[in-house]
User: Fold this.
Amino acid sequence: MASQAPTAPANAPAAAPADGAAALPGGIEIFRAGTHRDDAGNTHTFTRAQLQELADSYNAALREAPLTVGHPKDNLPAYGWVQRVFVNEAGNLAVDAHQVDAAFAEMVKAGRFKKRSASLYPPTAPHNPTPGKWYLRHVAFLGAQPPAVAGLKDISYSVADAAEAVTLDFSEAAGAPAPIPAQTQEPP
Assistant:
């Protein structure tokens, strides 16, 4: 059975953009260099340089790629939009999203759509906005369907690495100073 996307009544107002708590984190990996088999059974080899070219050619003003559930016919509906495409430090193609539907973002956060699959316009596709180059068509969030390109990092909602986090710890530890005696505290 196919994954069900969040739905709203036809006459319902559009969902407000997700706030910080419901937004998708930045840097979502969608593709990596290597030889991959497409849905038609054809193999394609992508180099890191080609991924960089794909990232550099992305222009949301020219043709904005939607976030979808699965690979829908006609790419409908969109649950958000790709704002930026880039090659991350690991050498994988990644995206930052915006205008993400709050209910969809919560489903992703809950782990219902852990894996992703990029849909690309081939360089010779008639509707490719950048003829001669690969171009991002949409990012499909997958439920139970395994992605054709395995090994991408799962979406992470961590705020910062522990080494970068600024904290004030108030626990007692070995060698910690003794509590302030009651008589030295100011009266209420």
Summary: The CA atoms of residues 162 and 168 lie 13 Å apart. The mean pLDDT is 78. Helices lie at 48-57, 102-109. The first strand starts at residue 28 and ends at 31.
